[in-house]
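Anyone? Bumping this.
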Amino acid sequence: MRRQVPLILCFAFGIVMALTEFSPHPFSQWLNEEIIDWTLVIGPFALVLAVATLVQSHWTRIRRRSEYWQYSFLVFIGMAAMVLIGIPLGQRHEAFVWLFRYAQVPMDATMFSLLAFFIASAAYRAFRARTLEATLLLAAALIVMIGNAPVGDLIWNTIIPFEDNLPSTARQWILDNPNLSARRGIILGISLGVISQSIRIILGIERSYLGGVEGD
Amino acid sequence: MIEKLMNIDRRIVFILVALAVIIPSLLEVSFPITVSQPTRSTYDYIEALPPGSTVMIGFNYGPSSLAELHPMAKAVIYHCFQKQIRVIGMTLLAEAATLGDNMLKDVAAEAGAVYGQDYAYLGFRPGATQVLLGMGTAIDSVFEADYAGTSLTEIPLMADVTNYEQVDLVLDLASGSSTEWWITYTNTRYNQQIAAGVTGVIVSQMYPYLQTKQLIGLMPGLLGAAEYEKLIDRPAKGTEGMSIQSFAHLLVVGLVILGNITFFIQRRQGE
Amino acid sequence: MKGQRFSCPVLVVQGLVISLLVLGCGLNAFAQEATTTEDTRLFDTAKIWIFLAVILYSATVVYCIYHARSGKELFIRRIPGLEAVDEAIGRATEMGRSIMYILGLGGVSNVATIASMNILSQVAQKTADYETPLRVPCNDPIVMNVVQEMVKTAYLNEGRPDAYNEENIFFLTESQFAYAAGVDGMMVREKPAAVFLQGTFFAESLILAETGNSIGAIQIAGTDKEHQLPFFIAACDYTLIGEELYAASAYLSREPMLLGSLKGQDYGKVMIFGPIVIGVILELFGITWMTTFFQRVR
């Protein structure tokens, strides 16, 4: 029974939500919006769960003096600072905006900027013309990279006096044609996979997502 | 030697990337910018809107993608204010709420736009799907008040704009999947015209929507910002960034070529 | 999958009854309240072709699933990324190091996350057998709870409940790049021998995969976000492309009903591929009605 109830609910909601997509009737639209509203209710519970889990795991780390346990204090300090300023003073308060602008923005931007370094090292290591297919990919990548930076057009227009701006035109052609076709193929495969997986979930064939619920 | 080059320490690559970014930012180098068709389509659409039209801008990027998308936001908002097009800002991401607010305020100060008449900022509401669908019926059913807490009924601009029917264009500035949400829920259901400005990482993902005209225009990363700045004849951060991007791209191209030369030499030696 | 043959039709009937009750009662109530301006049609005829396509494809998948119950051997092509799962776990066991499983940034309702959980369930059964530590840093607290229960059950089913350590499955943060920073830090400190990156990934994909590569871990990746595939292909040893992620649970478990759905998927591809080929041929001869028809489908 513990397993059957969620499976029945999953089936009923799955079918109802799919049907509401095809019906413009006010009830159908109301039902669709109402069910989405219900899912929003999960948000606050997830937040409580997240905070509880975070506090618990870092507290345990401090108590047991696990490796690098000192850093767990930083988690508590950061969390307390944002909560104590953000909740009573609001998001538009100078102090909160200062923390956002001078703490969160640089930290997030730093992590994102690592991509530039990693793209360069991954490209150097992985972009090798080992086979014909790899060579074609390599050529396409080089054209897109050159075409994506204005210096590509400048070099081309200076050295070769015909077909102005060919690198950026070639880049656009690659994005509009081979890229689009390949992407469509993958998207179609993914979409069919998603529908098929959804059918398995709705029918209760795929049930490992239910966690450790045992027995009927 | 060849073996060493093949297995070059990644830290050397990192130093080269750092130099390729730092040096051009110190030197004031500029390159001519060629405007791509998807960016031009966005510009043309906004340019053709009559004064008094409304553009809704979704600031759907976090602080991490700020460097790429902020210049784009700035250029488009400035263009709108210049054309006396009204701007409504909002976001589907909690962490972007402050970003959007600051951006609109900054550009409005430059362009002399007035809050409540020329622009409004609605801020963030949780539940992306619900927000996008809800605004199709009534914007004030989702956002009862703006980001500062002022009721929408007290904002003159919002008196004329009740749902998507009064919005001439939605521009989604995105670093994630939000453009696809706008397409699914507002283009498909409400026939809303949508344009997007996205980070360079996800730009190729948007091309299928461009071909099907579900997107009327697309601005690709920092290059898109530079292209738009060129179109409105107001070079700023996007244009400045192009010299850095150019050198960084040249470096990656150079590294790939070097990697392949060493690969071929090694293979020949092996044979 | 125990008892599935009998429970499936029962739950379908029960679910259908509930669905019809909800729809019936609601429609009745709303019919009395509807105003003249509202669209009170039960079915949007403009969507008829999409509806028929969904019904046709779903029926094909369902038919293939139930047909597969006959026990007939089904061919499934080799997927190197999934073949390498055993190799990755074996390597970690030999080296006496941990395995790190990253489910990406998707929530529990994300189909790719569910697919990833299914793979994790299979991986957990194997790590339980070999007593290899399995570390799962989570980005979503609900996903974390489900995963804890799932892995616990996997260890229990393998008769190794003592080897299960709840602290190895933990919530890190919901923030995208803070999560990437946290996972990267753990990778560098703990040096797991194998890293699984399965689920929904965005710009953090290469940051995670390159760090995994730098510590010499064997990496198996898979994502529904096709724009992240090039990064995984460049930095990981094996990458599941597109629908392979969704095929993984069927492939690893070899459960006939799950394999049946893969066959249905293939028929789906034929349904799409056929009209594309016919459409191209017709266009070449200047016949455009098929293209016009598909352009009108909404």
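Late reply, but here is one note on the structure posted above: The beta strands of chain B are 54-60, 86-91, 119-124, 169-174, 194-198, 217-220.
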